[in-house]
UniProtKB/TrEMBL annotation:
Protein name: ArsR/SmtB family transcription factor
UniProt signal peptide: none
Ranges of residues in domain HTH arsR-type: 1-95
Organism: Brevundimonas balnearis
CDD domains named among the record's database cross-references: HTH_ARSR
Stored NCBIfam families: HTH_metalloreg (NF033788)
Alphabetical UniProt keywords: DNA-binding, Transcription, Transcription regulation
Lineage: Bacteria, Pseudomonadati, Pseudomonadota, Alphaproteobacteria, Caulobacterales
Domain of life of the native organism: Bacteria
Record SMART domains: HTH_ARSR
InterPro entries hit by this protein: ArsR-like_HTH, HTH_ArsR_DNA-bd_dom, Metal_resp_trans_reg, WH-like_DNA-bd_sf, WH_DNA-bd_sf
This protein's record includes keyword Membrane: no
Length: 111
């Protein structure tokens, strides 16, 4: 990930509602959530939520898939992974042992 893409992603996540939507989608991965259900969850009109979802989609943080008449949104885990790795790429100045607490929190399921 380059600095420009990282900046675009962080800009998209700079709105509290979009950050909440992304976290909702992460909780429901990989199945995804219907667009209408996302709007209902946050009590927002579909047109407003559509704008938020478009911004998240434009950055590649989420993707959509039509299933019948419904559109489901899912998080792009690879894009999120790239964003997090971009942040920690130079963590601790190359002293990996100092990053162990951070890695333990990020990867609690792994030994």
């Amino acid at each position: 990930m380059d600095a420009r893409l990282a900046t675009d992603c962080f800009s998209a996540l700079g709105h509290p509602r979009r950050l909440e939507v992304l976290r909702l989608l992460i909780r429901h991965a990989p199945e995804g959530v219907k667009a209408g259900d996302i709007a209902l969850e946050f009590g927002q009109p579909p047109s407003t939520m559509s704008s938020h979802l478009r911004i998240l989609t434009d950055t590649g943080l989420v993707s959509s898939q039509r299933k019948g008449r419904e559109i489901y949104f899912t998080p792009n885990i690879e894009r999120l992974r790239g964003l997090v790795l971009y942040l920690v790429a130079d963590c601790c100045g190359g002293q990996a042992e100092q990053c162990e607490p951070l890695l333990a929190e990020l990867l609690p399921c792994c030994p």
